[in-house]
Amino acid sequence: MRYIAVFDHFLNRRHRDQITKTAADLGFSVTYCTTVDDLPENERGRYEVLYGNPAPEILHLFPNLKWVCVSSAGVDRHVDDSLYPNPDVVLSNSTGSYGVTISEHVLMMTMMLLRNMPAFQEAAREHRWHGPLPTRAVYGSRVTMMGTGDIGTAVAQRMKALGAASVTGVRRSVKAADPAFDRVITFRELDEVLPETDILVSALPHTAETAGVLNRERIGLLPDGAILVNVGRGTVLDQDALIDALRSGHLAGAALDVMVPEPLPADHPLWDAPNLLITPHISGNMSLEHTCDVDVDLFCEDMARFAAGLPLLRAVDRKRGY
Amino acid sequence: MRYIAVFDHFLNRRHRDQITKTAADLGFSVTYCTTVDDLPENERGRYEVLYGNPAPEILHLFPNLKWVCVSSAGVDRHVDDSLYPNPDVVLSNSTGSYGVTISEHVLMMTMMLLRNMPAFQEAAREHRWHGPLPTRAVYGSRVTMMGTGDIGTAVAQRMKALGAASVTGVRRSVKAADPAFDRVITFRELDEVLPETDILVSALPHTAETAGVLNRERIGLLPDGAILVNVGRGTVLDQDALIDALRSGHLAGAALDVMVPEPLPADHPLWDAPNLLITPHISGNMSLEHTCDVDVDLFCEDMARFAAGLPLLRAVDRKRGY
Question: Do B127 and A267 make contact, defined as CB atoms within 8 angstroms?
Fold first, then answer.
């Protein structure tokens, strides 16, 4: 018998049954736990696989570990080789689970900013019937989508379905992308497309290459009235430059689901920046049942490949960071 | 020369140029005014056509009126025959202008309710990092769309593009509808579909038939956790029953862009109903330039038909009310 430990914070009965049955068919026994303390010390040596959200600092406690599958898309907390009992442990993520929920979050935030929704909500809190305000639409807007993976593709498809004038994908290297992208460019060409961007969305992970990509100079390249939505990682963005661009009115608005630091302290200036919508890193959490369903499906799919000694479909390059 | 008066509250220079040129080519001269007082009394007899938002009570001041084209989709203020100098005056509306802007409003409101956005906004106002909340998505939801015209169709297309499990259209009589509707039923079958509705949207006009359609009994037929969005006319809905359904938690939320009365008085109980988002009848106003562009295109299109003695494409049946 081989052993899998699942760090279970989001699974329902149906998900656990699916994992247990898939594992049994492949010769694995599954232990469900909340933290590592639920697993007796003298038994940790049996686990080859961890799934869910194991804390990075506990990975080295599993001497015979071969595979860590995190239930998130972002793996920045798990990429440091020194976390692992040996360098051959494979890390995989759950890219593919989050496209639906994060893309709906992006659309919602984009439209709230384009339609001046916060001003109408403020009036409603005061029982005040507000007059019309300038309104814009996704329809006819030029969208630049940083990141063209699962999340970026789901956003692009929806923006296109709503009639965006153009959807430009930005990624590390040019590869075939979903037809919802009118074109895909690399970061080297980003400065050319920013001045023609009405809606800038980032779903970029945190890596050495993405950190600080949206710096003050690039924010300055956006046209007056542009909006910015970040659902990737907060390190991509110069937050001080964003605050300045919102205060000056250069940007019409922004929505951050990710920022530095998280949680954001109560006295942080981001909270009071004008036309900034802050959500507490919830655009892609496991609150949506569909996300959990897909996450479990993807884990079970890679479990079969692991059992057969095949490369995992969602293996992460720890050096590259995604 | 024949004469057109345009009651101009939303046109830019480009729109006026387009109207003036189209009219000139067809033998019409155009006067732009804000109110009827801008038109000398002794000249009112020359106007055959009014376009824009002429107040209902001034229509009878134009003895030779033949056509009134309102720039809105709703015509409830203009359907009373006694408003007109003679019963042969044709009334038309601007259906076709509002699909984009109102459908984006509906999507935004729907996702704000499904994703518990107001709770996150309240926490953000207090600089509080809120934990995750239950989240739902348009993806996988069952949508019932009351009204299958321009607005209903635009909503259906977008819901379908986002992966709604089903989109059922509800209308007066079964007619061919856009393929985004999985099926179209009549009001007689509404009671059967309500228990299987996660997202109920109304874009119904005010008519003798639609008034009170969403009564207490029908709201009661919706499943627990359903949400309701009204962008048509407020008279469709029993507002007291909605408040009760929100207070009891039967409905998860609602969004009203239209209500009775408008403007809503500051002491009206709707303002404080839980999980109710109120906007001041702005989902389809002329703040979006695209809406104005299409509105002018449609007027010019029907102007050519009027000049040629052809039936207007958007003529309204005043008895039916739309």
Answer: yes
